[in-house]
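Quick note —
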Amino acid sequence: MRQAMVPLSEQRTFWKAFWRRFRRHRLAMASLAVIAFMLLVALLAPWIAPYDPFAQPRGEDFGERIFSPPSREHPLGTDDLGRDVLSRLMYGARISLLVGFSVATSSVLVGLLLGALAGYYAGRPLRFYLGPLRREKEGFYPWSFALWRVFSWFLYYGVLFLLFQMFLGVTEMGREAGSLGAQVFFWISMAFLLFAALWGLRGEIRLDLDTAISRLIDFMLAIPTLPLLLVLSALLRDPRVPVGQWAQDVLGDAASVFIIIAILVLFGWLTPARIVRGTILSLREQDYVTAAQALGASDSRILFRHLIPNALAPLIVLATLQVGYAILVESGLSFLGFGIQPPVATWGNMLANAQEYIFTAPWLALPPGFMIFITVLAFNFVGDGLRDALDPRSRL
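Predicted structure written out below.
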């Protein structure tokens, strides 16, 4: 008996099947609604907030407005400066969610790129052509190879310049301490740099990207994260440091926000990179990749057309978990006084300010603490739902 043809519009596509499985996860759907509501409140905060979150009462009203308990006028009460807690909670959602989504997106993109390069070029060292004196038998190069050569030259001599600056700094410190060994160290270092510069005129470097990126990940994972986050946050916010001075001049009060995002991205790309590297190592041995190579497809086409799209499923799940993790870390840093600084309102520094008055004004600590808890929990449930929808075998 001949089977009836099913219209293409009625056929079960991947995304239809994904959405059907995701809808069955009730906690994930409820969490998605909670996240959507928070995003809506954060976006509309300037219009729906009942008060100015930075406004402080003056004169006789100051004594009456500080530590005001929840009331009809102020549903969540006021803080030690008389500012409305509900308004600051709405504006704090803008910063906390901005940090979470920015860190998750940037970390996943950086990890995706570096992990894909490490996995695809594993065992295939890249050649860095350095100086202008090196010649090949062909005599002429295509424009893409010429650009790669210029990049190699700038990268190599840029590293030498940074080493030169470091050696100068060590030597200057030794001179101030009156050390004779600093002079010996300086001349030995200069001889090494001169040899490296001359060798670079004809030299060639072969670098295994997989080895370099994997060892960098192992090194950064071995570093205690929290102490380093505290040190970097304090250092980059110091106006005496060039980066801190630049951030204060250009970004003003928002400087601490972008510094925290940059620091969290610096350590957030490690896990995505390891996941993508393992996935690409497995996918590049598949038959469709071999067929694409046999047809003459370029490495960039194979990476971005065939390999990376097939490695996105675990990253989508990880991105949702990264959002909750970033909000939690930012709140912890702000609670310790090393995160985003007042007057910018975040849930973390609201909680830090409330700890001093936990017994006299407990209503100050409950709203930001509850928002941090419910937001991180919601993103974790959404991540669980995405994992089950993208890979139904994970539930077996």
